[in-house]
Amino acid sequence: MSTSLSIQGPRFGALGVYALLYLAFIYIPVLFLPLFSFNDSIYIAFPLKGFTFEWYEQMAASNGLIAALMNSLKVGSAVAVGATILGTFAAKAVTRYKIPGRGPVITFIMIPLVIPGIIMGIALLVIANMSGLGLSLYTIGLGHLLVSTPFAMLIMVSRLEGFDKNLEEASQDLGESAWSTFWRVTFPLALPGIIASLLLSFTISFDEFILAFFLAGTDTTLPVYIWGQMRFPAKLPAVLALGACILIASFFVVSFAEWFRRRGTSPQTSSGI
Amino acid sequence: MSDNDFIWIDAVTKDFGEVRAVDNIDMKIKRGEFFSLLGPSGCGKTTLLRILAGFESPTVGEVYIDGQPMSAVPPHQRPVNMVFQNYAIFPHLDVRQNIGYGLRKSGLTKEEIHAKVDEMLEMIKLVGYGSRRSTELSGGERQRVALARALIKRPKVLLLDEPLGALDKKLREQMQLELRALQREVGITFVFVTHDQEEALTMSDRIAVMSRGQALQVEEPTELYEAPNCRFVADFIGSMNFFDGKVISLDNGLATIDAGPLGRISASCPAGHVTQGADVLVAIRPEKLSILTEMPDDQANMVAGQIGPSAYLGDRSHFYIKIDGRDEPVAVASQNMERISDRFSGGTDRQVWLTWSQEAVVLLPPE
Q: Which of A174, A177, A189 sits opposite B101 (nearest CB)?
């Protein structure tokens, strides 16, 4: 990243401007969130009226908002763990064993990536109703698991392909069964990938809207709750305050994940994420 | 089961889809032997080694180690250990943890394992390296760690998959001698895979030369070099000049052969090896040819030629001699016993004569 930006000579002018515009395009809209969350007005418009913590107090006092946040955290955590476990074992199978029909199997696992969310949402809604499962946080979780697993598998495939499979054979050769080899060699070496997969699956679930909208019962997740609040202008600034909090939390989480990923990338086991 | 068939590879064939990697190999390896599988890449030597380790199972045939059939035994329960080509040192563990890796289920206490690892570190001369990671080791040090990690298990057989391939020449030669000495010391049967014929000749008790999944010849190094049984072996081990010939007469272990551009030559050959009138391939090693500047008299095996290109290699020189009736020059290797800048006054195109003894000629089956 740093090398590609440090271009010298006459070309810097044009490319530098382009880079700044690009960064502005990505980040300015996001930065409006914290900005207006401190603005002393329920209308999101310039000029700014004054500085206030009121919206943060309102956010903390809003039971519905906090409940939706908790639901999202619960569903997101469960989906992260579930998708990562499924993705890891699927990746282990397709990278390490000669399974018949490897190509079609991978394609089938990846298909949810390209099915439009709205189609998937309707299909899952029909199934949930037909099977008598009923709509709840569980159905949302299952829907999210379906769309997160392909991502988890992609991450784990590249991680497992990134390190020498002789290491696993060496472990077996030294007397460890396939299962204990997994825990003594594969798992520790795949850990950076596992962390990345957990974070990505969590994020996918956390901000997923369409499936959650179709599959929600009485309890909703945060995106669905926020969408519901849009009808009441007075509630909006509290949502902005929450958005600012989430922004800061994700900044720390992503920084941690990146630090961890780099730490796990020794010269020998070239990274694959 | 005797010591002579400690490992018995019994008619093993291995197919990968349409590709036959190992083709009906029958081989016996003695207890305590340093046995090499030698061949070009793709000859099936690594596949055969992996069959011994249990990572591949034979399509047909069976492998016996110390009398026990192995096909039902998974890799982690076989009495063999392997040194991998790239050493496969666990990057998340230090040297001490790597070497002690295989002892977890040995029933030894922590203190006993510690003592055994110390012993190994001493043996591979890496005392004080215990807490290093594989990235902090040189190629030679990694190779030793891989060796110690396998030997600490006291396997019946140690499998080595081109373990010296990644080392530079000097270090490789040193490790060859060390490995050989180590094998004598521990007395474990070594099965060693290499594509380097010099390495195989230096280290092995016996060598199997492999090509296209088959074992062409299994012999001691000297026999393999002096009496190869086919063109491939003769060509792969060392270098060789080949001539087409026909057996004219056979007399008491001495064959007279019409070898085209070489004229009539005589060659000693064991009885029953060739028959009169048969086509043969005449093979002569470059170092068994002598270059004379004067025409010798009374030489049965002789041919005239002109000096062609030459290469000075320090301890020896290679000359390429052009002879009539043959496009390809004859290679001659000659020791540089004295300091000489120009061996043959007159240089290129100078008339010379090549001579060789009857024993220098190897008769091979024609192509």
A: A174
